[in-house]
Amino acid sequence: MLALADPDLDNGPRTDRSATMRMCAVSREVRPIDELIRFVVSPAGEVIPDLKRKLPGRGLWVSASRQTVAEAVRRNQFSKGFKRQVRAAATLPADTEALLVRSCTDALAMAAKAGQVVSGFSKVEGALQHGQAAALIHASDGAADGIRKLDAIAGQRSGNSGESPVFPIVTVLASEQLDLALGRSNVIHAALLAGPASKTFLSRCQILVRYRMADDDKTANAARNSD
User: Fold this and answer.
1) Confidence grade of residue 17 (pLDDT, cut at 50, 70, 90)
2) What is the pTM of this model?
3) Residue 63 bridge partners (DSSP)
4) Dihedral-angle region of residue 183 (phi above 0 means left; psi in -120 to 50 means alpha; beta otherwise)
């Protein structure tokens, strides 16, 4: 059980910084906060996502899943959780995803400013071949041929002794979004170099993937368990 008088709400970011687990208002499951999204109510009475968990006021936590956020809107869970009438727009699931995408592009831009990103097929290929790349980025709308060639090089690296068995390959952003983050046009491939800014980008991408795919993963797990 959570040590809160009201298990649905936290007491604000300043009073609850040490909490690592929260209850999803929809599923009622207690989960790590990295698997949840905090929502607060704006002064205008609108429900908004607090991705950085820093906005003032009490917060309601929902599993980081587009389908779960949509269900919270459909079931009027935000008004129930906050115990007052609040406005949760029908577009809240899509709006939340857009903010998660923006969070990823901002982090990628910061990594680029820190000199931890190279882009362009030849530069990415070189970074992979020389063992400089910590992760590979493809535009989600990139051509299959180029993606396949670079993935093959990354796969060879993963097979080398002493290397991590899983080499991160990120495909969550479209070319237009990569262009925006890197300040270039027609970016299809990029490579992350090691560094703290790169780790931040990968962490935010994981949250976006979870938001988009969490329900698919549950379906897949259920199918495997029924075999």
Assistant:
1) low
2) 0.85
3) 36
4) left
